[in-house]
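Q: I'm writing up a methods section and want to include an example of the input and output format. Could you take the sequence below and give the corresponding predicted structure tokens, formatted cleanly so I can copy it straight into the document?
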Amino acid sequence: MRILKALLFVVLFLVVVAAVAVGAVWFRAEQIIGARVQLPAMVFDASGADATRGKHFATGVVGCTNCHGQNLAGGPFIADAAFAILNVPNLTKGAGGVGARYSDADFERAIRHGVRPDGSKLMIMPSTAYQYMSDQDLRDVIAFVRSSPPIANAVKPRQIGPVGHVLIALGKNWFPADRVDQTASHPATQRRRLTSRTGATWRTSAAATSATASISRRPLYRFAGRSAGSEHHAGGDRLVDSRRFPANDQDRSRPERARPQPTHAVA
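A: Here is the clean output for your methods example:
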């Protein structure tokens, strides 16, 4: 009888410890998920921007349509009850879309900062790369989004499952707002040059500039333009992995030398 009571006590103790551990993990994850980001009042005006260039940039460079769909109406993104149920927002002005209520500043806050207008954090939004977009590039992208036909598609809010909560509590962070430099300044326009290990140089003109950051930050991806204005290359602009095409940090500290130019380079 004493052995049975001892076993029962051990079992109850382990259940209590497990419950406390689960509660602590869940509480910590909810703290991270629900934390609000306080940003100063933003003024951003995309009026008069080039929607055609924005479409080229959004579809061929930064890949907005890869997640939000070709019609920008959003939809299912991850459907795993154990991890998370995530739906990509509808960006159009249709029913259920954010286009009708988002100002230009709201779009800028979401794209470059990973933050909704109410301060809540977007999940798996690539703002760690988009934070380096120039004002010109971002205005054009917003103009393209606003020019899209309204589509009715009300997506459900995210639901993070138990596995997702555990991973977040243990340090796996899918909220770019926690990793973005929220106080960084942004260039009005950018003119970029990237050099591959073969020595070939891609140059971008003012009409096909890429949207990445200062070289010293070395983001995972940098954008390399292969076309200018209406003379878009068949492949358009493309993402370049900075691990394969490192930026020219060393080139900036020594005299420029001649390099072979690919036939598709744009001066």
